[in-house]
């Protein structure tokens, strides 16, 4: 009789402990709002949640790259837009200077304006991003790419032809700027390609002599078209990055929904389960107490 009573007591206590553990687990889920508290609760779902979160981190990194590249590209686009305006003005000035009504002083005055515009182009070629890095320097982002030699007055290139790229999706990379050498040092025209700064210096020198040739007018017309093309290239890259960001954002939203569906607790169901467990625990406790009392009464008899 003592053995059977002890076995019953052990079984009853085990049942109470299990129900109490279930109650505590449900209460924890209600308190955290999470259906999965630890991986062992559901290994398959936990693995899926972990994988989805890893994919989400990767997409967020892609979006951060898009934002970084877009900031640099927008600054480069602004520089190209301003360059187009400057070159358009120089083109107009070369046409004006070609007019035979201009005398030496008139052309020298035009030359001064062209020289100032040339200096603005030099400043644009040395545009920096928000981190102070040179946008058109290639990989030498800490080195000023275009420097005027104090002895000769010529612009010397200290950058390289590298183009930084960033990953914006699993299979896409985009440039964060343009090849500065292609932009400023290889301006195409009917007779080949030419250094933009050398071209402008030649125009200034010609105007200081009171002259202007048709060749310079044609070169400036080609220069305007060249820089307009660079601006268009940047705009297309920005549009491409914007479209990819929309795709990434949609994927992130779906991932958040998947994680929520897998991870978030159904509070209403948990409350119902908790109430049922509490009823079961109370019933088990009452049964245990009653049988224990009956056994004690029989023992006393």
Q: Care to describe what's here?
A:
This protein is mainly alpha-helical and 301 residues long. The chain has 2 domains: 2-33 and 265-300; 55-257, Up-down Bundle (f41 fragment of flagellin, N-terminal domain). The chain is 70% helix and 7% strand. It has helices at 2-32, 43-98, 104-125, 180-184, 196-208, 214-263, 267-300; strands at residues 146-148, 155-157, 165-169, 172-175, 187-189, 192-194. It has a two-stranded antiparallel sheet. A two-stranded antiparallel ribbon has the order 3-4. A hairpin with a 2-residue loop joins strand 3 and strand 4 (172-175). Helix 1 packs antiparallel against helix 7 and helix 3 runs antiparallel to helix 5 (196-208). The longest helix has 56 residues, at 43-98. It is rod-shaped and about 125 Å long. The mean pLDDT is 86.
Summary tags:
two-stranded antiparallel sheet, 2 domains, two-stranded antiparallel ribbon, rod-shaped, 301 residues, 6 strands, mainly alpha, f41 fragment of flagellin, N-terminal domain, 7 helices
């Amino acid at each position: 009789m003592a053995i059977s009573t002890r076995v019953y007591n052990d079984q009853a206590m085990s049942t109470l402990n299990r129900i109490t553990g279930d109650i505590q687990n449900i209460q924890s889920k209600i308190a955290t709002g999470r259906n999965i508290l630890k991986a062992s609760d559901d290994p398959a779902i936990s693995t899926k949640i972990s994988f989805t979160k890893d994919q989400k981190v990767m997409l967020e990194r892609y979006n951060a790259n898009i934002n970084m590249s877009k900031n640099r590209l927008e600054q480069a686009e602004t520089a190209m837009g301003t360059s187009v305006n400057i070159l358009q003005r120089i083109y107009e000035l070369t046409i004006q200077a070609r007019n035979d009504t201009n005398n030496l002083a008139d052309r020298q005055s035009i030359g001064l304006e062209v020289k100032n515009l040339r200096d603005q182009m030099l400043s644009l070629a040395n545009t920096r991003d928000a981190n102070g890095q040179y946008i058109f320097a290639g990989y030498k982002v800490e080195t000023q790419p275009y420097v005027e030699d104090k002895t000769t007055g010529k612009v010397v290139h200290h950058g390289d032809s590298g183009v930084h790229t960033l990953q914006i999706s699993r299979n896409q990379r985009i440039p964060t700027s343009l090849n500065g050498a292609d932009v400023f040092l290889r301006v195409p025209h009917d007779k080949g390609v030419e250094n933009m700064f050398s071209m402008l210096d030649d125009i200034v020198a010609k105007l200081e002599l009171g002259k202007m040739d048709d060749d310079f007018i044609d070169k400036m017309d080609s220069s305007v078209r060249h820089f307009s093309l660079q601006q268009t290239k940047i705009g297309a890259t920005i549009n491409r990055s914007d479209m990819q960001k929309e795709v990434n954002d949609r994927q992130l939203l779906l991932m958040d929904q998947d994680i929520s569906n897998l991870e978030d607790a159904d509070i209403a169901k948990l409350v119902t389960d908790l109430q049922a467990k509490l009823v079961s625990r109370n019933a088990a406790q009452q049964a245990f107490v009653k049988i224990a009392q009956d056994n004690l009464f029989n023992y006393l008899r």
